[in-house]
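We now fix the convention by which a protein and its fold are recorded. The integers have meaning only within a learned vocabulary of local backbone shapes. The record below shows the convention in full.
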Amino acid sequence: MNVTCADLQAFAEAWNRHDAEALMSFMADDCVFEASAGPDVCGTRYVGREAVCAGFCDVWSTFPDAQWHSPRHFVCGDRGVSEWTFTGTRSDGARVEVNGCDVFTFRDGKIALKNSYRKNRPPGLG
């Protein structure tokens, strides 16, 4: 089974619901999430279902009102891309609004790698 643009849309909708269980239903058993922020060249790297789920939940902890607007998806074989506009308010009250994208690698109908990128825009300008 191949991942489709409809699958990526359902994945995006689960992000906006802050639904970790639904998100994990799209992920491979040995999945990897490379978050856009973090100390490493890849951001922060989460490996395995438990760590990836925790990484997803960390996003909502940092931005309790996080939303990904106007998602646009592209799938070609075992790779895919979702573009979006992220909005969220940090716990310190700083508002963030930036464009970004996720680059996916698929395996056996599941997301094996979710690699996230977003523009570097100072908080409060969005």
In short: The helical segments are 5-17, 20-24, 49-62. Residues 5 and 75 are 6 Å apart (CA to CA). Strands lie at 27-40, 43-47, 67-76, 79-89, 95-107, 110-118.
